[in-house]
Amino acid sequence: MKKRLAALAMTAVMSVGALAGCGTEGTPATTGGEGGSSATLKIGGIGPTTGPAAIYGSDVRDAISIAVDEINAAGGINGMQIEYKFEDDEHNAEKSVNAYNSLKDWGMQMLIGSVTSGPCIAVSEKSKEDNMFQLTPSGTAVQCVQYDNAFRVCFSDPNQGAASAQYIADGALKDKAIGIIYDSSTEYSTGIHDSFVSKAGELGLTIVSDQSFTADSATDFTAQLQSVQGAGADLLFLPIYYTEASLILQQSDTMGYKPIYFGVDGMDGILEVENFDTSLAEGVYLLTPFSATAEDELTKNFVTKFQEKTGHVPNQFGADAYDAVYIIKKVAEEQGITADMSISDMCDKMKAGMATVTIDNVLTSPTTITWTADGEPNKDPRAVIIQNGVYVLAE
């Protein structure tokens, strides 16, 4: 991270059309538009819409659908209408590869996905073999973009960990005694944890207790909570997914332990956990590039349409996915992508375009996004705090 975290206002405004045909899970979007053009660009999506990470994948699926509808209604990409199909991988690497193969049989020409890191890494092996352009909205592990055909919209795990430590050091939380609880069985949590600890040491932050768990013990966190509480931690860093985070907040409350909680993108979705008392999340900090309460027209347009479609406020995974479609649109237009190109030729042009493009009309960056040669985005992160059941930009 070259830029410090800040609460930044978004300034970009995007002109969008009325809703057109809607691509849903397992079903292509309506294509052709007025005039009945048969030229289509087939974009596939992969992520969990069932299972423990379903909130992530469902929001990604629906956000892509909204962007596809807008673009198709406005004339498509270089005259092509987008056909869109999404497959559920249940946050499972093997099933994600199966989904990739199914979408390839369908005729997929570009991929938005996979949503979570483990499945994304597995699928990247297949997309590399095919030289298919892959843009993950939310796969944060470094290996998700290890090949030159793969890029991401979100921040990597090391960037999230270092940026979290920097945010804490730069503000009112800098003198807090920090406890950590992380999942040592996942690359996602371990990657964020390691970079956070390293950066915290550089910045002189005080870590008083560092506790771990594994996937097979992710229901009872009593021992870890007793350790961090006993060590005097008054800030608890949780680089984990929302399901485990909700349990930690519940069990911590039962113990009478009430630290300040600081999470990263995996905690986004905690307010939608079934039967979770959202009042327990009041005051929780999240490192995230998106605030659904931002007042710019682009965000308001997206949030309104998303709520109309789903009945709830989008998380940052959905926002990143919405951005991903518009990123593909801009690069494809600049590179002259046409429907009759081979998958490999499309990918080569998209790779060249990603090296030079500047995106300034996206939800999850307050200014612009560019990409490095290794597929990483350059954009400003921010922190939000949960107040009255919604995310608001933190100072």
What can be said about this structure in brief?
A seven-stranded mixed β-sheet has the order 7-6-8-9-10-13-14, with helices on both faces. Strands 2-1-3-4-5 form a five-stranded parallel β-sheet, sandwiched between helices. The chain has 395 residues and is an alpha/beta fold. The chain has ten helices and 14 strands.
Please give a structural write-up:
It is built from 10 helices and 14 strands. With 395 residues, it is an alpha/beta fold. The protein folds into 2 domains: 40-155 and 294-380, 3-Layer(aba) Sandwich (Rossmann fold); 158-288, Response regulator (Rossmann fold, 3-Layer(aba) Sandwich). A 7-stranded mixed beta sheet has the order 7-6-8-9-10-13-14, with helices on both faces. A 5-stranded parallel beta sheet has the order 2-1-3-4-5, with helices on both faces. α1 links the parallel β1 and β2. α2 packs parallel to α3 (117-130), α4 (157-170) runs parallel beside α5 and α9 crosses α10 (343-354). The radius of gyration is 20 Å and the shape is globular. Mean pLDDT is 88; it is low at 1-37.
What composes the largest sheet? 7 strands, mixed
Tell me the strand percentage band: 15-25%
Which secondary-structure class do the elements indicate?
A: alpha/beta
The low-confidence runs, each spanning 5 or more residues with pLDDT under 50, are 1-37
Within the CATH hierarchy, at the fold level, what is the topology of the largest domain? Rossmann fold
Mean pLDDT equals 88
Specify the CATH homologous superfamily of the largest domain.
Response regulator
Indicate the percent of residues in helices. 25-40%
Return Rg in Å. Answer: 20 Å
- End-to-end span in angstroms? 18 Å
- Shape call: globular
- Record field, number of beta strands: 14
Q: How many DSSP helices?
A: 10
Question: What is the CATH C level class of the largest domain, in words?
Answer: Alpha Beta
Number of domains: 2
Element-level helix/strand string: EHEHEHEEHEHEHEHEEHHHEEEE
Return the CATH architecture of the largest domain: 3-Layer(aba) Sandwich
> In what order do the strands lie side by side in the largest sheet?
7-6-8-9-10-13-14
